[in-house]
């Protein structure tokens, strides 16, 4: 049972939620709320932004300043909000399609700017809401409603993408590790810059039924049996790592945060006295 | 004392926006609108505003909507291809009722078309570019002075009605230099969005005030918690499939212009009282048209001039009234016929309509319109 201070963050009048029973996203919602509460955030000073998809319905259920935008574009909206009011805490929740397909451009540029937003990427390897089509993170060979013979498109590694584009905190966990998810989101919130927390989530309804992970538990067990912490992965060959999920914190570094640079620019030209 | 400047249309529009209280600009470079972004990048930080060059046109309007949600008067500017790209998020701003100003400096199309040449081919896109029914307010300035003035009006309408407002400029106007009389800041009438008076727990972001049918708007960060979505929603902002709630929301979006139409519509006329024909033109073309009308008057031809300042809502009732007397309307446009369909709709067959189309990247010559007036007279 969630703690009362966590329950305070739920917008109860918006329930029942629209996720399937057993969906992995509920575990992530709970982890996000625990991280916000434990980080001392206030609801009226916290923005939850999202795009389109199952994951993106999450902001409706959170009693904060919430904005459910267009498919893939949430980081661009969130960038505007953060620049306008850098005091706000901004969590951008998105799916794998939002982040790495239609919104890929916004994702890499948010990384490049190092703007103070925490992106929680809920990666379930599929377009769930639209009926189980292949996404840019569908594993090679996995089946989807638009990949009936198995996916041939090489998948993205979202953490490597974020690292290459300049994000200053990058981590990955699975829904089989809810406490670690919470810890990484807290670390992301504490980072003064753009943070990416990729959480491998499950869609037993759409992905699982075509790929031998039909029940929620099949998925949790799959994540448990196939996750490899970074330290262990470093000693493994690429062949050994085939099909594994490498978890841990990939990037922790400091570079100037974007809105800080802009406020400095305003001071430099005297706008702070305007 | 008003100040005199010698500005480009784009520069004038940018300074007009700042005078209107615009303090947020998100954009992306595109000809022939880039000077607007350039002025904003220089001036906004000086007034504690925010400028950001985004990664694409879509992000430019998205960030602008974000800036407005966080409490700023916000604007983006673009041209043809960029206006196409912005349409989806423009629709979100209509649905979520977020005030922003979007400038389209029209150039030739379709596609990349004629980036450095004038056209008036985006008139219908301004009305119907984003999918779904919505109410459009769009200004078409025709002088550098008016670029400054409509920027202020556009912000006032956006803030008042809590919706996007468009400024349909054009390449010639954007790059032409003219004298601008800049009013004193204290002489301007500025409208700011209506804020909620209730407690945060009672705030329903889409519940209209009974007296004007318009909902007040909080900003993220000022103590209110609320939900914004592009899904059709109820008064709490929560997605709905309830027919009554859908009908209420959809009608209310349209009513912003339907109910307040007479306060929004603007137009300009000259020599219409005894006119036996009227030239109807907007934007840069209106300048050519006015010149031709004056020359024709000097030749004792009873011709008048009508210029819609708001393309949307269109001054249809006003044109209909004049058409009953005038009998003939000449409609020159730099397209194969867009506003002319509105003119036809307005006059209900009470006047003959003569179309003039020019799609070659250039303006009409006054002699061409004068020639048509003489032919029709």
CATH third-tier fold name of the largest domain in chain B: Rossmann fold
Order of helices and strands of chain A: HHEEHEHHEEEHEHEHEHHEH
Our count of helices of chain A gives 11
Radius of gyration of chain B: 21 Å
The CATH architecture category of the largest domain in chain B equals: 3-Layer(aba) Sandwich
Q: In brief, what are we looking at here?
A:
The complex is a heterodimer of chains A (274) and B (377). Chain A has 274 residues and is α/β, with parallel strands linked by helices.
Short key terms for the protein model shown above:
heterodimer; A: 274 residues; alpha/beta; Rossmann fold; eight-stranded mixed beta sheet; two-stranded antiparallel sheet; 10 strands; globular; B: 377 residues; 2 domains; five-stranded mixed beta sheet; 12 helices
Secondary structure layout:
The complex is a heterodimer of chains A (274) and B (377).
Chain A: H1 4-7, H2 25-38, E1 46-50, E2 65-68, H3 74-84, E3 89-95, H4 96-102, H5 104-113, E4 118-123, E5 126-127, E6 133-134, H6 158-165, E7 169-174, H7 178-190, E8 195-200, H8 216-226, E9 227-229, H9 230-233, H10 238-241, E10 245-252, H11 258-268
Parallel strand pairs in A: 1-2, 1-3, 3-4, 4-8, 7-8, 9-10
Antiparallel strand pairs in A: 5-6, 7-10
Helix pairs in contact in A: 2-7, 4-5, 5-6
Chain B: E1 3-8, H1 9-20, E2 22-27, H2 34-43, E3 50-53, H3 57-69, E4 73-78, H4 80-96, E5 101-108, E6 114-118, H5 123-128, E7 138-139, H6 144-161, E8 165-170, H7 171-175, E9 177-182, E10 227-229, H8 243-264, E11 267-270, E12 277-280, H9 283-298, E13 303-308, E14 310-312, H10 316-326, E15 328-333, H11 339-347, E16 352-357, H12 366-376
Parallel strand pairs in B: 2-3, 2-4, 4-5, 5-8, 7-8, 12-13, 12-15, 15-16
Antiparallel strand pairs in B: 1-9, 5-6, 7-14, 11-13
Helix pairs in contact in B: 1-2, 1-6, 3-4, 9-12, 10-11
């Amino acid at each position: 049972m969630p703690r009362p201070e966590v329950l305070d963050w739920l917008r109860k009048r918006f329930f029942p939620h629209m996720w399937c029973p057993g969906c992995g996203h509920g575990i992530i919602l709970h982890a996000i709320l625990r991280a916000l509460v434990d980080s001392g955030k206030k609801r009226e000073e916290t923005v939850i932004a999202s795009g389109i998809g199952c994951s993106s319905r999450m902001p409706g259920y959170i009693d904060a300043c919430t904005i459910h935008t267009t498919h893939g574009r949430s980081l661009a909206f969130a960038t505007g909000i953060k620049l306008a009011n850098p005091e706000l805490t901004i969590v951008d929740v998105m799916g794998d399609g939002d982040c790495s397909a239609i919104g890929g451009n916004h994702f890499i540029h948010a990384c490049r700017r190092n703007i103070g937003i925490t992106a929680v990427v809920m990666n379930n390897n599929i377009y769930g809401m639209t009926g189980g089509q292949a996404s840019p993170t569908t594993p090679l060979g996995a089946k989807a409603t638009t990949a009936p013979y198995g996916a041939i498109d090489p998948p993205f590694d979202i953490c490597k993408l974020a690292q290459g584009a300049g994000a200053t905190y990058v981590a990955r966990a699975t829904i089989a590790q809810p406490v670690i998810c919470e810890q990484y989101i807290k670390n992301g919130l504490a980072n003064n810059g753009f943070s990416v927390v990729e959480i491998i989530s499950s869609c037993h309804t759409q992905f699982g039924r075509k790929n031998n992970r039909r029940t929620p538990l099949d998925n949790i067990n799959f994540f448990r049996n196939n996750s490899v912490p970074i330290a262990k992965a470093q000693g493994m060959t690429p062949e050994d790592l085939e099909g594994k999920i490498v978890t841990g914190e990939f990037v922790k570094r400091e570079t100037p945060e974007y809105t800080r640079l802009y406020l400095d620019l305003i001071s430099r030209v005297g706008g702070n006295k305007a | 004392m008003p100040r005199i400047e010698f500005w480009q249309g784009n520069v004038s529009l940018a300074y007009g926006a700042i005078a209107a209280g615009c303090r947020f600009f998100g954009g992306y470079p595109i000809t022939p609108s880039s000077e607007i972004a350039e002025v904003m990048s220089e001036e906004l930080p000086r007034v504690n505003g925010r400028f950001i060059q985004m990664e694409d046109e879509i992000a430019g309007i998205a960030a602008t909507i974000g800036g407005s949600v966080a409490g700023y008067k916000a604007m983006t500017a673009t041209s043809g291809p960029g206006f196409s790209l912005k349409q989806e998020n423009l629709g979100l701003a209509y649905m979520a009722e977020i005030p922003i100003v979007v400038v389209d400096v029209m150039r030739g199309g379709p596609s990349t078309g004629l980036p450095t040449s004038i056209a008036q081919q985006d008139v219908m896109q301004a009305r119907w570019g984003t999918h779904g029914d919505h109410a459009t307010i769009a200004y078409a300035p025709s002088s550098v002075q008016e670029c400054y003035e409509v920027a202020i009006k556009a912000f006032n309408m956006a803030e008042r009605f809590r919706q996007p407002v468009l400024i349909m400029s054009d390449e010639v106007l954007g790059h032409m230099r003219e004298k601008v009389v800049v009013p004193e800041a204290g002489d301007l009438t500025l409208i700011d969005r209506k804020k909620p008076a209730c407690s945060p727990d009672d705030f329903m972001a889409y519940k209209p005030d009974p007296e004007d049918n318009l909902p007040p708007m909080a900003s993220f960060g000022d103590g209110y918690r609320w939900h914004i979505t592009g899904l059709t929603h109820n008064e709490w902002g929560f997605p709905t499939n309830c027919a009554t709630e859908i009908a209420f929301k959809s009608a209310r979006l349209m009513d912003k212009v339907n109910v307040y139409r007479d306060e929004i519509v603007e137009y300009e006329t000259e020599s219409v009282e005894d006119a036996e024909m009227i030239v109807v033109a907007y934007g840069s073309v209106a300048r050519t048209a006015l010149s031709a009308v004056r020359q024709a008057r000097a030749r004792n031809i009873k011709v008048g001039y009508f210029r819609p300042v708001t393309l949307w809502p269109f001054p249809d009732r006003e044109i209909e009234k004049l058409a009953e007397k005038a009998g003939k309307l000449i409609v020159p446009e730099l397209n194969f016929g867009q506003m002319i369909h509105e003119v036809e709709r307005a006059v209900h067959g009470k006047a003959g309509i003569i179309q003039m189309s020019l799609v070659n990247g250039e303006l009409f010559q006054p002699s061409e319109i004068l020639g048509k007036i003489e032919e029709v007279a």
